[in-house]
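Cross-check.
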Amino acid sequence: MKKVLFGGVIGATMMAATVALAFWEHHPHLHAAHQRIEEAIIELRQANDGRIQYGGHRDRAEQMLLDAQKQIHDAAEFADSH
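Predicted model, tokenized:
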């Protein structure tokens, strides 16, 4: 039973990844920017180790990067629909 369930999860993950790549197919530069922002978000989250306080600026920077990712995604969707 566990193997069947695991196989289904793997299959669904692969399908989602394929759909995501197809979305970005016509927008390689937007996709690259989106990925670089994701890398920056990961770095910021690693900086939040609880030992150093950043006065809320790290959190604000992360939110701005998340907003930028959404804008990039919206730009690609707009281009696809026009």
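The first helix runs from residue 2 to 24. The helical segments are 2-24, 28-47, 57-81. Passed to J.P. for a second look.
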